[in-house]
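Fold this: Transcriptional regulator BldD
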Amino acid sequence: MSSEYAKQLGAKLRAIRTQQGLSLHGVEEKSQGRWKAVVVGSYERGDRAVTVQRLAELADFYGVPVQELLPGTTPGGAAEPPPKLVLDLERLANVPAEKAGPLQRYAATIQSQRGDYNGKVLSIRQDDLRTLAVIYDQSPSVLTEQLISWGVLDADARRAVAHEES
């Protein structure tokens, strides 16, 4: 295994571990000693080669598919992650209720669930956009264009929807 590849693999391993809120010692504790902190750390630094078998076991421990740990791959195979979908809540308040009512209620529900009441912007997921498209009886791409025309979504949202539909 080339040292560059080992470093990229290690970076992926570290990213998954930190996303799960685990320290190296936390991995050792959670695995009841099966994964030693020093060994996982050496994998993450690229100082130690990991066998395919051990990589599969580590992926299973983290609860992710092995391909998520391999360099050169990203979720969904995209070259870069799609842009975030961010609703401009201040502009949404200016859209007539007969048009934006369902979106306003949906956004209020998300805010309530998250306890996020900043009132300026709200991040939504692709799944939220698909749900809203069903509510509005439109395709996600048509709804995205409508939200952009209202000034509620940034035009970059087109890339997120195009990524999703490809």
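The chain has nine helices and two strands. Strands lie at 85-88, 121-124.
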